[in-house]
Amino acid sequence: MNKAYPNMNFVLLVEGRETACRSVRAFEHETEYETIQEGGVNDYVHIRRKPSSKPVTFQMERYRTAGEDGSEELFNVGTALKQDMVLMVSGVQGDFKNPVAQFTFSGCIVTGKHYSELEAEKSGLLTETVTIICERLTVTLP
């Protein structure tokens, strides 16, 4: 029997430090292929992988808080992160020693930042959405 895991137990490590996130938006790792038509009487095509032409892109949303822990400068637009970013998903609240999934993003650069809407008639918290591109994504599923 397959077991589904909740998507709310996750931690994002940025430059080796846990970073508080509200959400990590869906990310996509796409591989492109080209088709080569067989000549003569054969009625099929060959499929060959093309070199990657698009980076992996994802967004993380976080709350703006007073007294930032130094993570603010990590997310300035144009910042190239020195270490891999690691996103760990756990099947049990707070237990990240044995994650059910681990996503490692290498060669990350912050390319954009978006702040939430401010509205005087509704209560809410100020959030920022950070857009990051990466050279490589490695997925580990135990």
List keywords for this structure.
142 residues, five-stranded antiparallel β-sheet, four-stranded antiparallel β-sheet, 11 strands, 0% helix
Task: Provide a quick synopsis of the model.
It contains no helices and eleven strands. It has 142 residues and is mainly β.
Largest sheet, in brief, is: 5 strands, antiparallel
The helix-and-strand class reads: mainly beta
Low-confidence parts lasting 5 or more residues at pLDDT below 50?
none
Could you spell the SSE succession in H and E letters? Answer: EEEEEEEEEEE
Q: Strands of the largest sheet, in order across it?
A: 2-1-7-8-11
> What is the alpha-carbon Rg in Å?
20 Å
Shape, principal axes of CA atoms: extended
Q: Can you count the beta strands?
A: 11
**Which percent bin holds the helix content?**
under 10%
User: What average pLDDT do the residues reach?
Assistant: 85
Beta percentage is: 35-45%
Q: What's the end-to-end separation, in Å?
A: 16 Å
What's the tally of helices?
A: 0
Topology:
Layout: E1 10-14, E2 17-19, E3 23-24, E4 33-37, E5 45-49, E6 56-63, E7 85-89, E8 101-106, E9 109-115, E10 127-134, E11 136-140
Antiparallel strand pairs: 1-2, 1-7, 3-6, 4-5, 6-10, 7-8, 8-11, 9-10
Would you mind describing this structure in some detail?
The structure is a single chain. With 142 residues, the chain is mostly beta strands. 0% of the residues lie in helices and 42% in strands. It has no helices and 11 strands. It has strands at residues 10-14, 17-19, 23-24, 33-37, 45-49, 56-63, 85-89, 101-106, 109-115, 127-134, 136-140. The strands form 3 sheets. Strands 2-1-7-8-11 form a 5-stranded antiparallel β-sheet, with no helix packed on it. The chain has a 4-stranded antiparallel β-sheet with strand order 3-6-10-9, with no helix packed on it. A hairpin with a 7-residue loop joins strand 4 (33-37) and strand 5. The radius of gyration is 20 Å and the shape is extended. The two termini are 16 Å apart. The relative contact order is 0.25.
